[in-house]
Design brief:
This protein has 287 residues and is of the alpha/beta class. It contains 10 helices and 10 strands. Bound molecules: zinc ion.
Length: 287
């Protein structure tokens, strides 16, 4: 008989189980999950950095990611319109966690506005929902998740204060901007900067010539100081509005996606800091 050196019976005490496999629908959620889950989770995202979650087309590889996942973390509020078809195609068995479940959504017409993460106070609710879902899926690591969440939530608290202070330094009559699509209503209501967008809450529809005309008239009438580009949507439209109104182009705001490691917004905290910096730079001083 061959001698097989078997692992000692108590091996599972010292050897941790494999990390929890999690799929997050888009990059911002993926970042929240990494912060809470640390090395006890293996996170993949469906819509990666620098990609538009509104108009995503799932790939066959996505079905594979879903099949292996224990949890699927989604935003909800109508953001992932492409998800039901993917779930069906993948025959996924992962439990679905809706990270916005404790958030009262703002409305955009008859629909919910999905961009709830743009308020840092809401981001904290996402993190809490993710923490609870991870603890439920992997009770042995619940304490670890709780501790990570606490550390990250403290950073988000500080970030929220930072944004309030930065907005506080912008003269009140200059707290208004144009951005490509309507992604900042939660930011606007939380922090008091007015956003006007030629596209609606999704990037799917093109604005009509009439919509653009109305925006141009509004920028002129309200003396809106700056126009901002986004990674999603068509920059030519914003350049045209800037050219016709004399508003300056204030830079790029990140709304629905993080950037790669070398970009301006590889994490959620970087994204909010970047946005508040470009807003403050463009609005703070009357030229
Ligand atoms: Zn959006």
């Amino acid at each position: 008989m061959l001698a097989i050196s078997a692992a000692p019976a108590h091996a599972q005490d010292s050897t941790k189980q494999a990390p929890l496999k999690i799929v997050a629908s888009f990059s911002i959620l993926g970042d929240f999950v990494k912060n809470v889950g640390g090395d006890r989770v293996e996170v993949t995202t469906l819509v990666g950095p620098d990609s538009d979650v509104h108009v995503y087309s799932p790939t066959p590889a996505d079905a594979g990611k879903m099949a292996a996942a224990k949890l699927l973390i989604v935003n909800g509020l109508g953001l992932e319109g492409w998800l039901p078809r993917l779930l069906q195609a993948a025959g996924a068995k992962a439990a679905i966690v809706t990270a916005t479940k404790d958030i009262a959504p703002l409305k955009s017409g008859a629909d919910a506005d999905p961009h709830a993460w743009q308020s840092v106070a809401n981001a904290e609710k996402y993190v809490t929902a993710i923490r609870d879902a991870l603890a439920k899926a992997d009770p042995a690591d619940a304490g670890f998740f709780r501790q990570n969440a606490e550390t990250y939530l403290a950073k988000l608290d500080a970030l929220d204060r930072e944004v309030r202070q930065a907005v506080g330094r912008i003269p009140e009559n200059r707290r208004k901007v144009i951005s490509t699509h309507d992604a900042f209503a939660y930011f606007a209501s939380q922090y008091g900067i007015q956003f006007i967008a030629p596209l609606g809450v999704s990037t799917e529809a093109e604005p009509s010539a009439r919509d653009i005309g109305a925006i141009i008239a509004q920028v002129r009438a309200a003396h809106i100081p700056a126009v901002f580009l986004e990674k999603v949507g068509d920059p030519r439209l914003m350049r045209r509005i800037a050219a016709e109104t004399g508003a300056k182009i204030g830079g790029t705001l990140y709304s629905d996606s993080l950037t790669g490691e070398k970009g301006d917004a590889p994490t959620y905290i970087d994204m909010v800091r970047h946005n508040i910096k470009v807003l403050t730079d463009a609005l703070a001083n009357d030229p």
